[in-house]
Every structure is written in structure tokens, then in C-alpha cells.
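Hey L., structure's done. Input below.
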Amino acid sequence: MPAQPVAPITTWSPDNVIVTWTAPDNGGSPVTGYMITIRLSDSVTYSEDLTDCDMTASTSTTCTIPVIALRASPFSLAWGSSVYA
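Output:
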């Protein structure tokens, strides 16, 4: 069974937040996808981003989320908020 990946790194470009991570040791089983969750404006709850980061059938280790999507529901982050993925 694959190990859990280490915490991702988030970087900002003018219009996007880019989430990258290192693929974990697969333990002999193929990695068939990842789940990307973003912390909501309540600073407690996390929600999946299935619009911009549907990684359920992907082995990519990068996800790009438009800043405008993070400011909208369900995330509702204020301008200047930190992004936790």
C-alpha cells in the first residue's frame, strides 16, 4: 500500500496557487490518484477542489487552482489569506 505523501508546497503566481508534492513510496502498489483538499475560510474545515484539481484518476503531482476559485464558494477565502492544502 502506498505511503501518505509529505505535506505539499503551495506557491503563488499572479493568478493561480500551485500545489506540488512528492509522490510517496508506492510500497509495490501503483498510485492511482490523489485527493486535494483546501482549508475553508472558517480555518477549520477542508473541502476537495474537484473543479480545478480532480486528481482521482491522476498520477500528476501538481495542481493549479485559479485565485478566483479560492475566493468563491466553497472556499470563500479573503484576498491575502493563506492557502492550506
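The two ends are 23 Å apart (CA to CA). Residues 5 and 56 are 15 Å apart (CA to CA).

-- N.
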